[in-house]
Design goal:
The complex is a heterodimer of chains A (582) and B (76). Chain A is 82% helix and 0% strand. Chain A is mainly α. Among the domains of chain A are: 158 residues, Methane Monooxygenase Hydroxylase, Chain G, domain 1 (Up-down Bundle); 190 residues, no CATH class. Chain A is rod-shaped, with a radius of gyration of 84 Å. Chain B has 76 residues and is an all-alpha fold. In chain B, 82% of the residues lie in helices and 0% in strands. In chain B, helix 1 packs antiparallel against helix 2. The chains are: A mainly alpha (582), B mainly alpha (76). Chains A and B meet through helix 11, helix 15 and helix 16 of A and helix 1 and helix 2 of B.
Chain lengths: 582, 76
Amino acid sequence: AGLVTVGGGIGGTILYAKWDNKFRAAVENNVPYSDWLLGLALGPPSPKSGLPIKKQVRILEESLTSSAKATLQAIGAQEAALQAITRHTLKLKEAMEAEEKSAQWKDLEAALADRTGAVNDAETALSKANEALDSLKSVIDKSKGLKVSAVRPLVLAAEENLHNMVVDLDKVVTKVHSAESEAKIVSQYSELVNEAKQQFQREVSSLTPEIQANWKGLTGKLSSDDLNALIAHAHRRIDQLNRELAEQRVREQIHIDAALEQQKLEDQKALEKAVSTALQHIKEEARLEQERKLSELREVMEAEMRTQLRRQAAAHTDHVRDVLKVQEQELRVDAEQVLSSKMLEQETRYRQLSQEQLDNFTLDMNTAYARLKGMEEAIDSHVVAEEEARKAHQLWLSVEALNYTLKTANADIPTVPLEGAAQAVRDSCHDSDFALALSSALPEESLHRGVYSEASLRARFNSLRSLARRVALIDESHNSLYQYFLSYLQAALLFEEKQEAPPAQLCSEDLDPFKLLSYASYCLEHGDLELAAKLVNQLRGEARRVVEDWLTEARLTLETRQVVSLLSAYANAVGLGTTQAP
Amino acid sequence: MSEKELGKKWDRCLADSAIKLGTGLGLGIVFSVLFFKRHTWPISFGSGVGLGMAYANCQNDLRSHYLQHRRQSVFI
C-alpha cells in the first residue's frame, strides 16, 4: 500500500509537471534530482510555449514599456550626470584660475558631491536600462522563437524601439564619457596645482613650523626672519620652477607628439568603436527594415492566399454538398431496404417463435392434463382398491369372529348364538351374493341357540353307543318287550371292537349296527365327524331313533362348520385378491 | 334328547308295572281276603293281571312310535 501511494504520488507529479511547466520548474528548483527524473520521464522542459500568445504579447509590451522607462531614466540620469560633470569642471576651472576662496571650495565640493552622486545615479540608471534592454531583447528572441505571425509586427516594433533606445543610450553615454575625460583633464590639472600648493605649504611649514597651514590669513603673525626665509624659499622655488618650465618647453614638442599619438590612438579607438556601433545600428536598422518589409509582404501574401483559399473552400463546400446529397439519397435507399428486410425477417421469426411457444404450451398442457387424469384415475382406482381391501378385510374379520365363536363351545354347553357374528358377516358383505347366500345358509338353530362342539358330541356319542347297542335289534317289526330283552341280551353278550377303521366302501355286512358304531367311534376318535355322521346315518330302527338327536346336532355342527369354512375361504380369497403386494 | 326317551319310557314302564303289579297284588289280596276266603289264586290272579297289564302297557309305550295312528297317516 505504501509503495502504491509513493508510486502514485510520483506519477501524479510527473503528469502534472507535463501539463503545467511552472509547476515543473518549481519542482525542479526545490527537489534534488527531480530535473533528471522529469527530464527522463517527459523530455527537456518545454519553453514557455505553454503560455498563451496574449500573455506573451502582454509580456512583450510590459517589458517594452519598462525598458523604455528605464532607458529614458538612464538618458535623463546621464544628461544630469553630464550637466553635473560640466558644472563641476567649470567650477574647478574657475577655482583654479581665480584665487582660492573657501566659498568656492565649498561650492566645488558640493559640485563634486553632486557630480559623484549624479554619476552614480547615471551608472545605476544605465545598468538598469541595460538590464531592461537585455530582458527586452531576450523576450523578443523568445517571441521570435514562437514563430507566430500575429506577434511579428509587435516584435518588429519592439525591436525598432529597442534599437532606438540603444542608440540614444549610446549617444548619451559617449557624451558623458567625453565630458568625463574633459573633467579628468581638468581634475588632473587641479590636482597638480593642489600638489604644488601643498608642497609649497610643506616647505613653508618645515621652515616656519609654528605657522599654521592656512597661511593666507596670518600675515600679521610672521616675524621678519620668517618672512625672509619665506621669501628666499619662494625665490628658490621660482627658480626651480623656471628651470622646470624651460625643460618643459624643450620637451614640449615631444610631449605634444606623444600626446597627439596617444590622442590619435584614442581617437582611432573611439572612431572604431563609434564606427562599429554605427555599423551595428545600421545593420540593425536594415534588418528591421527587411523584417518589416518581409512581414508586410507576408501579410499581403497571406491575404491573397486567404481569398484564394476562401474561393476554393466555397467551391469545395458546394461540391461536397452535392456529393453528400447524392450519397445521402443512396444511403437512405440502402438503409431503408435493409431495414425493411430485417423487419420482415424479425416479424417472421417472431411469428414463428410465438407459434412454437403456443404449440409447446398446448402440448405441455395436454400432457399435464393427461397426466392429471391418469393420476386421478390411479388415485380413484387406488381408492376403490383400498375400499375393496377394507371391505375384504372387514369381511375376513367378521368371518374370523364367526369362526372364533364356534370355538366358544365348552364341554356340554353349546356355543353362543351365532346370530351376532352372522349379522356382522352379513353387514360386511353387502355386495357379495355368494357371501350373502352363505351367511343366510347358516342353520337357524346355530343362529339362535348355537352349536355343540365336536368334543361334546364325541362324549355324547360314547354314552349313546351303549344305548344304541342295547336297542340294536329293535325296529318297526321287532319291537315287543321280548325283543327288547333279546336285544339287551345280545348287547351284553356281543363283543366288538371299540374302534374299527371303516373301509372305503361299505358293503352289506358293514351295515350291522355294532360294526357301524365301532366305525363311527373310530371316526370320532380321529376327528372325522362327517364320516361318523354318515355312518351313524346308516343305523335303522330304534337305534336310529335313539341317535336321531345326536345326528341332528352333528349335522348342525357340520353344516355350520362347512358354511363358516366356506365363508372363511371366500374371505381369504377376496382378501388375497385385494391385497396389494408391497 | 332322543336318547333319553327310552330311559323315560323304561322309567314309566317300571313305575307303571310296579303300580299295576302292586295294585293287582293288593286287589288280589283284598279279593282273596274278602271274597275268596284267603285262597291264593286271587292274589296270583290279581298280580298276574297286574303284570300282564303292565307288560302290555310297557310294550305299547315302547312301540308307540312305530304305531302311528292311521287317521294321521290317511290325512297326510
